[in-house]
Amino acid sequence: MSATKITAKVVRQDQIATDIYSLILEAGAVAVNAKAGQFVSLYSKDGSNLLPRPISLCEINKDKGTIRLVYRVVGKGTKEFSKLREGDKIDVMGPLGNGFNQKSKRAILIGGGIGIPPMLELAKELKCEKSIVLGFRDETFLLNDMNRIEGEVYIASEDGKTGVKGTVLDAIREYDVKGDIIYACGPTPMLKAIREYAFENYMEAQLSLEEKMACGIGACLACVCKSTEVDEHSHVNNKRICKDGPVFDAGEVEL
Amino acid sequence: MTENYNKKARTANVNGDTGKNDDNGILEVQGNNDDTNDSIIKSTEISFAGMGVDIAGVKFKNPVTVASGTFGSGAEYGDFVDLSALGAVTTKGVANIPWAGNQTPRIAETYGGMMNAIGLQNPGIDVFCERDIPFLNNYDTNIIVNVCGKTEADYVEVVERLADEKVELLEINVSCPNVKEGGIAFGPDPKALESITKAVKAKAKQPIIMKLSPNVTDITVMAKAAEAGGADAISLINTLTGMKIDINRRSFSVANKTGGVSGPAIKPIAVRMVYQVANAVKLPIIGMGGIMNYEDAIEFMMAGATVVSVGTANFHNPFVTLDILEGIKKFMDEKGIKDINEIIGCVK
């Protein structure tokens, strides 16, 4: 645990798709200690929005001490963040959570919607053979960044305009994507389906979950998920997504 | 784990880290680097002289504690705040057996606050005694154990288990709005409240604090019932029952449908209730409800609170308790207040 809270400086921000923004922050120790699959809490300056917003790390640059966050505007807090410009300040706590447990196995990285950004940093960190499968509703984003990574990129979209029409699993079947381990982040129905797929194919899978959070550090017990094993904190099979996760082995949680 | 936390806390204390921003607005990396598991723990260098208060014979070095449920048993926040700086740590409610709590979503943000329906998830008194009490006893702070239950017998069982434990005070949570039993059964009924106060008091070795629900018509009736039952102190307010609806999904924002509203949005109600209770009973009061800064803390003390609890604000700023302590000290210095007790209930 090496999280800290800092006031970070905005390096730049760009809108990269409808309601999707890319924010680069000078974040010192937060960047230096971070790894793929972890997240940060961003704090609103508006006192009416008290709770920090958990946002996954899209890229980490330890040399420059910067982090890149790609997020969707979904409410008042993210709306405020989307207005940040170069030189602005924002309070950040992190890195939080456990991140992916990276294995030297042929990997399939699966991102769905706003679950795609953490897959970029993971793809950069994983030095083994890998395939990247991305699922979009309609509009795509981060494709240029993903295409720069070594490894095939496969796409599914709900409207069929890009790649296979359907889900990420449709793309995996269509293109016969093979691997020994799955790393995934995305909406719960997608993760449920991937969990089933991994079990059926005797594959290892790591899933990054999300839930409404308050403290972000494991104290308030808001963001729990059902776990198959007894949890360390309360001994009631409720693991804390912020502290014990957000990445879990597929067999460790019930979705 | 415990030794590790303790070591880090002591180191942070010695360094006297104040966590001030440098010119770049980037917080300097502080704390020790003597193990790979280090973190940045903020402490304070202020003297607590003149800040001491007393609740039922228990001395507090300063009047700041945390509200139950917002701070766990201190382990998680201990990575950010030197727990020894606090007047007390008030722990998350503990029952006789583990409770799994409610379904998710358990929280929702509300304007100037939040709504929670955690449902008192806790590991039960056995784990609490083995793990959490020894952990907290590594720090120089009072321990207030929040006790929850579904029946009177549950509360008494927990209180009896705590009798020989090294904890300073027990806070009896008869006011949680998010569990079907316990909170609902005792909170708004003065006769039931007096009865459970008596039952707990008969077995308790530590002074007992009855935590009152604000979800009543007249808070003074409840305070008087707790006093009649033999309570040593009163804490208030617990959260206000609320509801939030997600209009896009046509569903409730928390799975429990209703939740307890906390945060600065409810502060004026809490200050009013602390004032009313201070003028209705002779018991010392631990005041809480939306305290975000030292001004809020002083407001509660002037209304009649001896100790103040910081809750939701911890989520907004994990260092807030230390900021509040430093703010109170500055206020005392500026106003020439030699003893914090001077201001308790000073507004009549």
Amino- and carboxy-terminal Cα gap of chain A: 27 Å
Strand order of the largest sheet of chain A: 4-3-7-1-2-6-5
Number of distinct helices of chain A: 6
CATH superfamily label of the largest domain in chain A: Nucleotide-binding domain of ferredoxin-NADP reductase (FNR) module
Which class of secondary structure composition applies to the elements of chain A?
alpha/beta
Walk me through this protein's architecture.
- The complex is a heterodimer of chains A (255) and B (348).
- By secondary structure, chain A is an alpha/beta fold.
- Chain A has two domains: 4-96, Beta Barrel (Elongation Factor Tu (Ef-tu), domain 3); 107-252, Rossmann fold.
- Chain A is built from six helices and 16 strands.
- Chain A has a seven-stranded antiparallel sheet with strand order 4-3-7-1-2-6-5.
- The longest helix of chain A is centred in the last third of the chain and has 13 residues, at 188-200.
- Chain A starts with a strand and ends in a 6-residue tail after the last strand.
- In chain A, 56% of the residues are buried.
- The model of chain A has no long low-confidence stretch (mean pLDDT 96).
- By secondary structure, chain B is an alpha/beta fold.
- In chain B, 31% of the residues lie in helices and 17% in strands.
- Chain B is globular, with a radius of gyration of 19 Å.
- Chain B has a single domain (44-94, 119-240, 260-343), classed as Aldolase class I (TIM Barrel).
- Chain B has an eight-stranded parallel sheet.
- The chains are: A alpha/beta (255), B alpha/beta (348).
- At the A-B interface, strand 1 of A face strand 5, strand 6 and helix 9 of B.
